Amino acid sequence: MGSQIDVIALIDVDSTIHVKQCLESCDQGFRVEQASNMMAFRRLILSRKFDCILSSMDSPCVGEVICYQLTHHPPIPVVLFPRDDLAPHNHERLAGKIRRKVETLQNTNHSAPAAIVRGDKIYLRGVDGKEVYWGSESSDSEDLGEEMELEFRAIDYVRDRLAAVVSDLTEELYQSDLAPEHVSDIVYEGYRKLLLWFRDIDLSLGHRDGN
Fold first, then answer.
1. Which one of 3.50.80.10, 3.40.50.2300, 3.40.50.12280, 3.40.50.1100 gives the CATH number of domain 5-106?
2. Do the Cβ atoms of 132 and 121 come closer than 8 Å?
3. CA-based nearest residue to 104, from 159, 23, 26
4. pLDDT digits (tens), the chain, 211 positions
5. H or E stretch including 187?
6. Of the residues 48, 50, 68, 165, which has the maximum number of CB atoms within 10 A of its CB?
C-alpha cells in the first residue's frame, strides 16, 4: 500500500505492546523499528533515516521527542497517539494517520523561516527565500539566532498539530448523525471560541491590555 515509510516508534509504556507487528500488518509499505526507551531511540534514529516518529501521549519521554522534532532538520513528522489507538479495532486508523502525515509533508514544499546571523546583524529569511534585516545584537547574536529558529519551528509544530486535530475532529463529525452540510459551520464556530481562548491567554500573560 503506497510508498515505503520508515517509522521509529518510542513505546515505553507497556512492553507487551507490539506496534511493529500491528502497523506492518495494516500497511505493507511500513517498516517499523521499535525503541523501548530514549537511549534506544537516539541510537536508532542516528543509525539511518526515518520518515516519522511515533510515540504514545502518556510516554514520560514525549517532551524529549518533541524537542528532537523541533531541532531536527529536515523536518520529521511526529504522530502522538492515545493508548486506545493500539486496540485492535484502531490499528487501521493509526496507520492511516501516520501515512497521511508523512505524505502531506513530502508533498509540501515546507520550510520554516530562518534566522541568518552575519556578525552582529540578524536577518530573517522567509519561506520565499527573501531576507529582511531584523536587528543587531552586540554580544549574543548567535544564541539569539538559534533561539529564534527554534521558536519558528515551534510555531510550525503548533500549526501542524492544530491542523491535524481539526482534520480528525471534522472526520469524526462527518461520521456522526450531523447533517454533512453543517459540519464546516460547526468546525468554524468551534474555531471562533478558540480565538477567545487565545485572547484570554494573551491577557493573562500581559501581551494585551484588554482593549
1. 3.40.50.2300
2. no
3. 159
4. 568 999 998 876 554 557 888 888 888 899 999 888 888 998 998 898 899 999 888 788 888 888 877 777 777 888 888 777 777 778 888 888 888 888 877 766 556 677 788 877 888 877 667 888 887 776 777 777 778 878 887 887 787 778 777 877 887 787 788 888 888 889 888 888 888 888 888 777 666 555 5
5. helix 180-205
6. 50
Work out the number of other CB atoms within 10 angstroms of the CB of residue 115: 20
User: Closest Cα to residue 34, out of 44, 46, 47, 49?
Assistant: 44
Following DSSP, what letter does each residue of 82-110 receive, concatenated? Answer: -GGGGSGGGHHHHHHHHHHHHHHHHTS--
Residues 58 and 12 sit within 8 Å (Cβ to Cβ): no
Domain definitions of the chain by residue range: 5-106
Distance CA 123, CA 134 (A): 5
Q: Is the dihedral of CA 79, 190, 159, 4 positive or negative?
A: positive
Helix and strand tally (H, E) in the chain? 6, 7
Note if the pTM is more than 0.85: no
Query: Phi, psi (5° rounding) for residue 3?
Result: -75, 165
